[in-house]
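Risk register update: the risk of archive-format incompatibility is retired. Evidence:
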Amino acid sequence: MHENPNLSPDAVDVPSTAMLETAAAPQHRPRILILYGSLRPQSFSRKLALEAQRILEHLGAETRLFDPHALPMLDSVAATHPKVQELRQASLWSEGHVWISPERHGTLTAVFKNQVDWLPLEEGSVRPTQGRTLAVMQVSGGSQSFNVVNALRVLGRWMRMVTIPNQSSVPKAWQEFDEDGRMKPSPYYDRVVDVMEELVKFTLLVRGRSEYLVDRYSERKGAVEAAALAAAAGVVEATVTQKESA
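Archived output:
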């Protein structure tokens, strides 16, 4: 410790595999929330979301697909709005997310961003997204692009999520789905399967351990300092009380 004089000894935690091995492993199916970013009747991001849902269910996951219709714009209503509460409860239920957005003007859509904006980083002692796994995908009307998945990765990091390495970008999406809305066989479909498979694996790996994985030195240090201040305040109050009674 003498080589790191700025470290708070009471707040330092040396990571160990033992802590990961002793974490309780949930036995239920992995819980995945799927968000998509278009309100169009023939939304290709919704079609891809439904395809992802089918694959995830086949891989043993339990899923919820959130419908962004009727979700008000951020701050236009109170957070008690039923649609906002539905979204937040679904995120709290989840252990992982799938985010899918069309590319609009080189980035993700307002429909998609509005959903994430309604998810607070912290609400009391609860963090609706922290420590959850995340897979990102996009659909494009033209040639292949990675603008959206890159933007979603930045957003996922900001929301303190464990974003998996793999991702999917489906170009000319109007060519990739049949009349029934099912994705056609192709290397793009295979990549979607890859991403969903990887998400389930990472979710199984992280869940039950996420609290330990995202436990932070800075927050532990703050808690130690707050406890010391509270203890000192108690001593002061006790001294004052004794003097007054005397």
